[in-house]
Automatic annotation (TrEMBL):
<dbReference type="InterPro" id="IPR001539">
    <property type="entry name" value="Peptidase_U32"/>
</dbReference>
<dbReference type="Pfam" id="PF12392">
    <property type="entry name" value="DUF3656"/>
</dbReference>
<dbReference type="Pfam" id="PF01136">
    <property type="entry name" value="Peptidase_U32"/>
</dbReference>
<feature type="domain" description="Peptidase U32 collagenase">
    <location>
        <begin position="316"/>
        <end position="428"/>
    </location>
</feature>
<dbReference type="InterPro" id="IPR051454">
    <property type="entry name" value="RNA/ubiquinone_mod_enzymes"/>
</dbReference>
<dbReference type="InterPro" id="IPR020988">
    <property type="entry name" value="Pept_U32_collagenase"/>
</dbReference>
<protein>
    <submittedName>
        <fullName>U32 family peptidase</fullName>
    </submittedName>
</protein>
Amino acid sequence: MKVELLAPGGSYETVIAAFNAGADAVYTGGEKFGARANADNLTIEQLKSVIDYAHLHGRKIYLTINTLLKENEIKKELYDYLEPLYVHGLDAVIVQDYGVLEFVRKYFPQLHVHASTQMTILGELTVKELKNKGVTRIVIPRELSIPEIKKIKENCDIEIESFVHGALCYCYSGQCLLSSYIGGRSGNRGRCAQPCRMEYDVVKNGKVLNPGDSKYVLSPKDICTLKILPDIIESGVYSLKIEGRMKKPEYTAGVVSIYRKYIDLYLQFGRKKYKVDNNDIKKLNDLFNRKGFSESYYKTYNGKEMITFSKPDFRAANEGLIKEIQNKYINTNLRKNIDIFVTIKKDSPMEAVGICGENVVTVYEDLPDEAKKLPTTSDLVNEKMAKLGNTPFKVEKIETYIDDNLFVTIGKINQLKRKLIDEMTKSIIDRYKRNNALPYENVEKNTIICNDKKLETALVSNFEQYKTIEKWNRISRIYIEASEFTRQEIEEVVNNKTKQIYIAMPYIFREKDKAYFSKEYIGMLNKFDGALIRNMEEYFWLKNIDMVKNYIFDYNVYVMNSFSQQFIRKTDDITYTVPVELNYKEMFDMGCSGQEMIIYGYMPVMTTVNCIAKSCDMCQKSKEIYSLKDRKSEYFKVKCVCDYCYNLIYNCKPLSLIDYNNKIDKLKLNSIRYSFTFESKKQIKNMIEHIDNKEYDLLFENNSEITRGHFNRGVL
């Protein structure tokens, strides 16, 4: 069995240290498009250098382009950024954006594409489709269990990568907008400000449930999986990934060296002799931790034992350990064994043959001279040729044949050596290099013809809201939040509908959710006019059972540029919801004609498998509503979606673009959506009255009650 140890490289020094400590591959970011924009990211020349270093030693470099790209970025910057690295032999790119996937497959056909955990890949159906689209590896969400990983591997012949050590996000990766909404620093754009690491009061019915020093309710402990590595490997995970591109070289090298030790132990002896030394756990603790470690979600669905609660008390550095790491892995470089054979004959150029693995090179130097005094000996040639200094090689075997009575200067021996090393280095790294990429061709933006008059739709979260909205004449389509309605209520809606009725699918759709959803709704699905899709897994699942003919992707199935539009159109003729992180100009540049846009509603800022009720109260599966109060006394409501066992954390203020009609009309949308979550019947009736009368200034007492989202400002 072969597995890969994959390390983070937030700087040039860290990349080298990771390889020196035993990493098989390193994922690192350049100066653009990576999910760690504030890391000490590598320049193009540094990237080329570490690609060469990796290839010289049989390792790999993966470039992170795991963010969402805007129209001008993907059209004007991505090609020129990737092309020199592609030619130089970059092994793979890690991508979040479906548009980037489409782009890379089109212009860089020999480059491997790894689907980032930011894609929120929840099951085998999505994996199969991504493989068909050219993806060679998937990075699974941290939330998936060992049985779920096994099922994906059993049904899909694809490499699986999974996190085994480091920081753990509270939110499903790719589904977090908290930093984006409260500070304009988007996690989808590599600029997360980590508001999850701040203090919050958990409030229910006016009572704070976490008094005292227990405010870090969204801050998970780091993960450490040394003790369950055999289980993870045997589940089908090929690449064992360490998190930490913001960490120092000493951290990365230290963690890598310990995981290298235990991976090798398992691969050599299997489970029988696999035992973790607590001293190694202590070393990992000394390198970094937040209130101890957890084993993530591999064997536990969720739980308070994963959360730090109190403020992390980062311990003083273990200076002895740091010094040891520096000496072993940082103040040194890897060296490969090389065999050298030198032949020096009268009246022939000097010859040196180098053998390094499968690579064989031959170089020549000037003719030797006839000795006037002492002739050059083979021992002298061997001594000088073996001194390889600060090169990537060390001599394992060396032999010299030299005719009698010949003399060679030390300078010529050194020149022969330099030629040999240079040629061997070139021979190895040139094997990875490619021809030029395919020429770039511009993709036209979306120009779908839409109705002269925009349709108006509404999302409702309970039966009372539905009955109120049903009477609103201007609404032509209603989305029913499946997780919030009883079966009886849904039957009443679909059997007596007066408007188009779409089922709004769960935000998370894992294996257990498919079983529950089938049990509850399979008999009535064909009565819906369509489905609002929150993730790709449920889309392919519904397609497989031929449930409905009309689909619309919600805002969190991101379509941020014309290449992602192209990807979606190749998949099916689907309407999508305009992404909430683009400003008006960026929407216009991309082209949103024929699509839908949310103009009102409380926006989810986190979708989490960990549960506020379970962490701070009591899990009663009663669909409770909690609030998180931040240091600015803003309240973020938390909805426990118990049927599918996840939490939705909502922004503290509702988005409202209702009075921006003139601008929105220019986008040539097919429809606009009002999204109702916590609003009472009275509040909705009041909104309806003001909207019908175009009394937009009366909708809210003042603008401080609402947010315009990113419509005006956008995100960086």
